[in-house]
Automatic annotation (TrEMBL), chain A:
<dbReference type="Pfam" id="PF01266">
    <property type="entry name" value="DAO"/>
</dbReference>
<keyword id="KW-0288">FMN</keyword>
<keyword id="KW-0274">FAD</keyword>
<dbReference type="InterPro" id="IPR006278">
    <property type="entry name" value="SoxB"/>
</dbReference>
<dbReference type="InterPro" id="IPR036188">
    <property type="entry name" value="FAD/NAD-bd_sf"/>
</dbReference>
<dbReference type="InterPro" id="IPR006076">
    <property type="entry name" value="FAD-dep_OxRdtase"/>
</dbReference>
<keyword id="KW-0560">Oxidoreductase</keyword>
<keyword id="KW-0963">Cytoplasm</keyword>
<dbReference type="GO" id="GO:0000166">
    <property type="term" value="F:nucleotide binding"/>
</dbReference>
Automatic annotation (TrEMBL), chain B:
<protein>
    <submittedName>
        <fullName>Sarcosine oxidase subunit delta</fullName>
    </submittedName>
</protein>
<dbReference type="InterPro" id="IPR006279">
    <property type="entry name" value="SoxD"/>
</dbReference>
<dbReference type="GO" id="GO:0046653">
    <property type="term" value="P:tetrahydrofolate metabolic process"/>
</dbReference>
<dbReference type="GO" id="GO:0008115">
    <property type="term" value="F:sarcosine oxidase activity"/>
</dbReference>
<dbReference type="Pfam" id="PF04267">
    <property type="entry name" value="SoxD"/>
</dbReference>
<dbReference type="InterPro" id="IPR038561">
    <property type="entry name" value="SoxD_sf"/>
</dbReference>
């Protein structure tokens, strides 16, 4: 089934009786070339690019719950490529380019909206830092515009420009940044992978990883044993538990990050606005809800919900930045389980086991990375070499101290990012 | 979340600063080698369930506490002074 405007019209006129399921619901085979553990955004995109770019279609994605039921459904949907450091910069640029062709490629409406992202600054020193970041973005081939206060005011008239503690001096504008419909991204990749022959197997929890002579041989699951030549662990949010099945301890601590959405409102916030000093950022969904979030709760958690001090901090920051937000009523909140790595950057690498790959440590930035992460992991699985735009995400960088990617300049230890 | 401090009684979570897994109680020797130090500084068990952590009562008595806590339910178990837990 191919989606098109004509098809939507036809189905609308004929009672929508012609739509079919987007993907099959197969039972697992006993043997695959590649098994991907984790049917979230990253796992599904990995399967899709294995099939599309490398012709590897004897692939299963094993998901313990339902497709897209983890962090790809628990984020704030922001897509951007405004990184500074080599290692991150070329990777997120690569990912953004994949986003830009994604809907046509998948024949699926992921509602990717490049409405522009603005990072606010509040001092001369911060302006200099953002000018430097903007130059790094331009050098990478992406877009950045440094806006002064007078240029910003007509774009974001609702902000409190004269806050005593953090008066707004301007913002770094990233016009190609924006948002996407998070669930549709998972569904689009799932459909695309399924159409190329990948088996998407839900309600199938991996309970063991079979290793013989230092090489991976397959996995044990709640739906039986499955042999595989290669296995990839793509389970951010449960990375430590799955890696433990292969005898690994990861440099990961899992934290909760809360986010919120208000009742639906008429259009009022046209961009993604990020208020770094208040750890607050906001955009408006196509349904009209204001989607916003803040910082971690700062304790280890798998609860997928946070505590009230985190809520209070975010609401205070929102009120300080845009007092109009006080009129909106919060509809609901949620918490994502963040794989926090010591330097705040992800891991996409081989492991000490031949044929076993790991993709984890996305901190609070995994959503925008979905296309890029799957694309470069598929490359690594298929070719055995790192993709040219993802050579830095090494598992051993903490042990060796070489290649730490500390984007925020905070250091490389747990609980700093 | 409220944490029962052995010195101050049960207090709001905001009075405490979270350090992380209670690995600092068993610091390796300076010459223990790269693997031991990698394990100590970076690698974590990171359990989904009961865990043992270090919290600092910065808004109270200033004591370091060893807190047993469940990372799935946020339930707090035994809390003890780190100075008395150290082997």
């Amino acid at each position: 089934m191919r989606f098109s405007g004509l098809r939507v019209l036809k189905e609308g006129l004929t009672g929508n009786r012609g739509w079919t399921p987007h993907w099959r619901d197969p039972d697992p085979n006993s043997d695959y070339d590649v098994v991907i553990i984790g049917g979230g955004g990253h796992g599904l995109s990995t399967a899709y690019y294995l099939a599309r770019d490398h012709g590897i279609t004897n692939v299963a994605v094993l998901e313990k719950g339902y497709l897209g039921g983890g962090n790809v459904g628990r984020n704030t949907t922001i897509v951007r490529a405004n990184y500074f450091l080599p290692g991150n910069s070329e990777f997120y640029s690569h990912s953004l380019k994949l986003w830009e062709g994604l809907e046509e490629d998948l024949n699926y409406n992921v509602m990717h909206s490049q409405r522009g992202l603005i990072n606010l600054f509040h001092s001369d020193g911060q302006r200099d830092a953002f000018a430097r970041r903007g130059n790094a973005m331009l050098a990478q081939g992406d877009d950045a515009v440094l806006l002064g206060r007078d240029e910003l005011r007509p774009m974001l008239p609702y902000l409190n420009f004269d806050d005593l503690r953090f008066p707004i001096y301007g913002g770094l504008y990233h016009p190609r940044g924006g948002t996407a419909r998070h669930d549709a991204v998972a569904w689009g990749y799932a459909r695309g992978a399924d159409r190329r022959g990948v088996d998407l197997i839900q309600n199938c929890e991996v309970t063991g990883i079979d290793i013989e002579g230092g090489a991976v041989k397959g996995v044990q699951t709640t739906r039986g044993a499955i042999r595989a030549k290669k296995v990839a662990m793509v389970v951010a949010g449960r990375s430590s538990q799955v890696a433990a099945l292969a005898g690994m301890r990861l440099p990961i601590e899992s934290h909760v990050l809360q986010a919120y959405v208000t009742e639906g409102l008429k259009p009022c916030i046209d961009h993604v606005v990020s208020f770094g000093m208040g750890h607050f950022y906001i955009s408006q969904s196509d349904k009209g809800g204001l989607v916003f979030g803040g910082d971690l709760d700062f304790y280890a958690s798998y609860a997928a919900r946070g505590n009230l001090p985190g809520v209070e901090q975010v609401m205070e920051a929102g009120m300080a930045l845009m007092p109009m937000i006080g009129k909106a009523r919060v509809l609901r909140s949620w918490g994502g389980i963040m794989d926090m790595s010591p330097d705040g950057s992800p891991i996409i690498d081989k492991t000490h086991v031949d044929g076993l790959f790991v993709n984890c440590g996305w901190n609070y930035g995994g959503f925008k990375a979905v296309p890029g992460s799957g694309n470069v992991l598929a490359h690594l699985i298929a070719t055995g070499t790192h993709h040219q735009n993802a050579t830095g995400f090494r598992l051993d960088r903490f042990r060796t101290g070489r290649g730490i990617i500390d984007e925020e300049g905070k250091g490389s230890q747990h609980n700093l990012h | 979340m409220r944490i029962p401090c052995p010195l101050c009684g049960t207090r709001d979570r905001r009075e405490f600063w979270y350090r992380g897994a209670a690995v600092d109680l068993e610091r390796p020797a300076p010459d223990a080698g790269v693997e031991a130090w990698d394990d100590f500084v970076y690698l974590r068990e990171n359990p989904a369930g009961p865990t043992r952590e270090l919290w600092y009562h910065e808004g109270g008595c200033g004591a370091w506490l060893v807190v047993e806590r469940d990372t799935v339910t946020h339930e707090i178990g035994r809390v003890a002074l780190a100075s008395e837990e150290r082997s």
